[in-house]
């Protein structure tokens, strides 16, 4: 294709991998090291009493990376009192606000605003995806009650009411590799679910509008350019004439056992593609560079500055609490990172290698004497849900219908969202006097992929 997607592919937007690459995913993975010290670490310690932590996530199914996450990173999560994410994934307002910001003004439809040729190509591509989706679904997904028609309608059912930039993100996510991952929470979402299950305090350092508005800030000509380049790439992928430079498998491999390369992790963090490519005509290269610069500034640098300042405020407001800040890994790598912001405020932040013991000294949660020498065997640490003995019993159980919307992108139709919210309210009423159950989650944003 004439424009390859490079430096900024968010969450699952870099899931633009061909079917043969998906089938080869096992060979693409690196070998699981037996020694903890050989594992990659995306954990940084904020040195205070009690210590707090930064942890870099990626937006892929947690099962693809969990075994490569060092034990001290998992322990830091378990030890912490409060867990913060980029967005509050447990707040119903997050869902409705994300939905609203994606929609065209009242009374407008995509056919009214797009050039005729692009609209026809878009419609033709979505028809192709709908036709192919049944063959993309895995037996495991069908066994959990997740079917192609339901999934397509949830992701693309309301596409003619979306703003073009959100349609571009939606198209990028409608690939075979992405569809095959549905039904397993991405790492960010899994940690949010576990924080709630462990009854930790949770929160967010950003508001929906702060992530959403920059995407809507592109001018019309830039959006049309981006959507056209996206369709060109998808058309080339369908024709088998394009080899995508970065895929989800590359991201997973780097995360599990590669270099801490800020470039590839920025792909997963900034939430949009970079269309800058030397094969473009000079005039289009200028447009691509403008888009690249705009999103680098708005979705990386400005967000890092804002997130860093809010982390500082939280640490000062709760000096006796241990925080675990789980943000996209790209926010901690490269230049002008969240870590840099906090260091400029006078905090000492150190990378914590795999195998290095976690300092459990805390004024709010004193550790038992025995745990000093056996930090991995502390009785205070609640195990993760998927590691509990009953896991195998639940594996074959179909998903409840009202759990399915939590596995979709920010392209869910309004009707499905409203239906899910109604069910959520009914279930809360039914369970009010019963034992507390998991709060409902929606990974609309983290699966824009999409932290």
Brief summary of the model shown:
With 451 residues, this protein is mostly helical. Helix content is 46%, strand content 6%.
Rg of Cα set = 22 Å
Structural class: mainly alpha
Low-pLDDT residue spans: 1-28, 267-271, 362-379, 391-416, 433-451
Q: End-to-end span in angstroms?
A: 28 Å
- The counted number of beta strands is 6
The overall pLDDT average reads: 76
Number of helices: 19
Helix content: 40-55%
Proportion of beta-strand residues: 5-15%
Shape: globular
The largest beta-sheet arranges its strands as 4-3-5-2-1-6
Summarize the biggest pleated sheet. Answer: 6 strands, mixed
Order of helices and strands: HHEEHEHHHHHHHHEHHHHHEHEHH
Q: Can you tag this structure with a few keywords?
A:
disordered N terminus; 19 helices; six-stranded mixed sheet; 6 strands; mainly alpha; 451 residues
């Amino acid at each position: 294709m004439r424009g390859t997607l490079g430096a900024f592919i968010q969450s699952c937007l870099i899931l633009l991998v061909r079917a043969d690459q998906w089938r080869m995913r096992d060979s693409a993975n690196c070998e699981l090291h037996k020694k903890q010290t050989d594992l990659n670490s995306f954990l940084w310690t904020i040195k205070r009493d009690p210590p707090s932590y930064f942890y870099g996530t990626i937006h892929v199914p947690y099962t693809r990376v969990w075994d490569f996450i060092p034990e001290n990173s998992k322990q830091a999560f378990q030890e912490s009192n409060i867990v913060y994410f980029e967005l509050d994934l447990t707040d119903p307002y997050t869902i409705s606000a994300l939905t609203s910001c994606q929609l065209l003004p009242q009374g407008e439809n995509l056919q009214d605003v797009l050039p005729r040729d692009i609209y026809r190509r878009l419609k033709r591509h979505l028809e192709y995806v709908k036709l192919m989706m049944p063959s993309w679904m895995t037996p495991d997904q069908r066994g959990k009650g997740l079917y192609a028609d339901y999934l397509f309608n949830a992701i693309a059912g309301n596409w003619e009411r979306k703003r073009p930039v959100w349609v571009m993100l939606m198209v990028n996510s409608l690939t075979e590799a992405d569809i095959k991952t549905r039904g397993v929470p991405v790492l960010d979402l899994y940690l949010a679910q576990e924080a709630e299950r462990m009854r930790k305090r949770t929160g967010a350092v950003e508001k929906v509008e702060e992530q959403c508005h920059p995407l809507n800030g592109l001018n019309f000509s830039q959006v049309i350019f981006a959507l056209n380049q996206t369709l060109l790439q998808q058309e080339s992928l369908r024709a088998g004439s394009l080899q995508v430079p970065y895929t989800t498998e590359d991201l997973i491999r780097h995360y599990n056992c590669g270099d801490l390369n800020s470039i590839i992790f920025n792909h997963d963090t900034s939430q949009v593609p970079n269309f800058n490519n030397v094969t473009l005509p000079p005039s289009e290269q200028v447009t691509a560079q403008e888009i690249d610069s705009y999103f680098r500034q708005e979705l990386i640098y400005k967000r890092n500055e804002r997130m860093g300042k809010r982390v500082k405020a939280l640490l000062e407001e709760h000096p006796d609490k241990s925080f675990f800040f789980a943000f996209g890994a790209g926010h901690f790598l490269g230049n002008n990172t969240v870590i840099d912001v906090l260091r400029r405020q006078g905090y000492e932040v150190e990378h914590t290698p795999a195998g290095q013991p976690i300092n459990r000294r805390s004024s709010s949660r004193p550790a038992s004497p025995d745990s000093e020498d056996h930090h991995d065997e502390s009785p205070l640490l609640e195990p993760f849900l998927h590691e509990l003995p009953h896991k195998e019993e639940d594996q074959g159980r179909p998903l409840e219908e009202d759990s399915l919307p939590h596995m979709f992108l920010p392209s869910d139709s309004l009707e499905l969202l409203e239906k899910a919210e109604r069910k959520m309210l009914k279930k809360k009423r039914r369970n009010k006097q019963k034992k507390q159950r998991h709060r409902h989650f929606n990974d609309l944003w983290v699966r824009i992929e999409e932290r």
